[in-house]
Amino acid sequence: MTLGKKLWALILIKLFIMFVILKLFFFKNFLNEKFDTEEEKSEYVLEQLTKPKNTDND
Amino acid sequence: MIENLDFALVNWSRAQFALTAMYHWLFVPLTLGITFIIAFMETIYVKTGDPEWKKATKFWMTLFGINFAIGVATGLILEFEFGTNWSNYSWFVGDIFGAPLAIEGIMAFFLESTFIAVMFFGWNKVSKKFHLVSTWLVAIGANLSALWILVANGWMQHPIGMHFNPETARNEMLNFWDVFLSPVAVNKFLHTITSGFVLASIFVIGVSAWFLLKGREKLMAKRSMIIAGVFGLLSSLFLIYTGDGSAYQVAQKQPMKLAAMEGLYEGSEGAGLVMLGMPTPGKEYDDDKDDYVFKIEIPKLLSFLGYRDFNAFVPGVKNLVEGGYPMTDEDGGTRTAISATEKIEKGKLSINALAEYKEARKNGNDTIQEQSLKVFRENFQYFGYGFLNDPKSIIPNVPLTFYSFHIMVALGFYFVLLFVMVLFFIYKNSLETKKWLLRLSIFTIPLAYIASMSGWIVAEVGRQPWTIQDLLPTVAAVSNIDASAVQITFWLFAIIFTALLIAEIKIMTKQIKIGPKEGGH
């Protein structure tokens, strides 16, 4: 296999793994998946930011 | 009801981002620098018509092609992670990231990807001059890509030019130029791309040294070493200059990072710069242990580099946690620094005021809206502290930051020496006989990567716990997802990127062994 073919094969395999496997199955956009509108996303993040959390690491 | 934060989720998300960012960075700096080295060589070829220069240009272009092919799109993984693991953060940064990244997409990426095709496949198909212009545009485009992402990173280190919209929970850009020309961003961009120039120069010198040791391709190797030596030396000197600029900005904007870089717990006036030292293992900011097991320092230099005054007070970790030291604020006035505990209180005031504002808006209560917004705005600069409870949370990993910083600086000065030696012996026409220097040059290739990685560790570990300085800590930036999902993808990435790295090294070394004759297009 020539260098050029080898590199093209590597690029295509990598892009397939990244966009087809990882993006579709593991990296869904969290806010887009849960909410349809920008308002809902704002509301959710505002709630996350203002909800008291115990951040003591113990 | 108080929700317990899943620290496994935070830590795995951080580990995953660190892993993917570092693997991505393995491929980037070589691209940033070697494209310029190739452009210099091709320029000489077009000017002189000497086919030896064309051979050299094509050889290094092949190695660049391998690096580009394997590294391309590895940075997109980071964007996936923003959307999945760091959704609060992604929403919070608003259009601050959107604008620079959109410009990158439209301008730099298309510039780079369009002309890279001409660069690789256009030999004998387009004119020499058009091909040369394409090569230069690839170099410029690659570095412009870095510009926009580094502007975004600079904003995270020093958020400026925006205001936070409490209705949408997003930051909105007020002034593009404040973001773009922020001194943190400018220094970061210049320092980062020049580090890529230095790394690429060392790569070219190291590979050329291997040819000289093998007695092969002597003319190409020597010419490559001259180009890389001069480019590397000039870049190294500029790297020191921009490093000083970056450290100055860190002193002003992120004093805790500076204290960690120097392992300085107890601040002082006329603070010295540690040249060599070992921070005391297990040291806590409030115990009585000495800061260092041993240290060799240059008196007063840290004060000068950080504040341009040999007698300036440099706060240590303890001072920054406890406050009470004199400091200059953003407006140039002098005031007494407040403690981390007070900042946490102000941060909580700001968060509570935001919650009240949200409630009042829902209920249509204008008076409470106005009052809460006022309290929110007054304390917004400490907003992120409100997510913390323990003042110690603002201390990054001091030993890791200290050692990374000192390794980076020591290697940076060593690289200057290497470039000087290589150029000196080339000038004396005795480089080939200096086998030790040729071996040293090969051995220096991994050191260049270590220095480059160390720089990013200083920049990113040193600013913990923040994703956005003072405004959003990692604990508030993560998505509410399952930690085990992040763990799975962490290991997936570890396998994929390690495979890519092995492929890069194997293909690259094979191609180097083949050499320029068979390595052309």
Secondary structure elements and pairings:
The complex is a heterodimer of chains A (58) and B (521).
Chain A: H1 3-26, H2 30-34, H3 38-50, E1 53-54
Chain B: E1 3-4, H1 7-48, H2 51-71, H3 76-84, H4 87-93, H5 95-121, H6 128-157, E2 162-165, E3 170-173, H7 176-180, H8 183-214, H9 218-253, H10 255-262, E4 268-269, E5 273-279, E6 292-298, H11 301-307, E7 313-314, H12 317-322, E8 326-328, E9 334-336, H13 340-363, H14 366-379, H15 398-427, H16 435-461, E10 466-468, E11 472-473, H17 474-477, H18 483-514, H19 516-519
Antiparallel strand pairs in B: 2-3, 4-7, 5-6, 8-9, 10-11
Helix pairs in contact in B: 1-2, 1-6, 1-8, 1-16, 1-18, 2-9, 2-18, 5-6, 6-8, 8-9, 8-16, 9-10, 9-15, 10-15, 13-14, 15-16
Task: Give a description of the structure.
The complex is a heterodimer of chains A (58) and B (521). By secondary structure, chain A is mostly helical. Chain A is built from 3 helices and 1 strand; from the N terminus they run H-H-H-E. Chain A has helices at 3-26, 30-34, 38-50; one strand at 53-54. The N and C termini of chain A lie far apart (55 Å). The mean pLDDT of chain A is 83. By secondary structure, chain B is mostly helical. Chain B is built from 19 helices and 11 strands. Chain B has helices spanning 7-48, 51-71, 76-84, 87-93, 95-121, 128-157, 176-180, 183-214, 218-253, 255-262, 301-307, 317-322, 340-363, 366-379, 398-427, 435-461, 474-477, 483-514, 516-519, and strands spanning 3-4, 162-165, 170-173, 268-269, 273-279, 292-298, 313-314, 326-328, 334-336, 466-468, 472-473. In chain B, helix 1 packs across helix 16, helix 6 packs across helix 8 and helix 13 packs antiparallel against helix 14. The longest helix of chain B has 42 residues, at 7-48. Chain B is globular. The model of chain B has no long low-confidence stretch (mean pLDDT 92). The interface between A and B is large, with 36 and 56 residues.
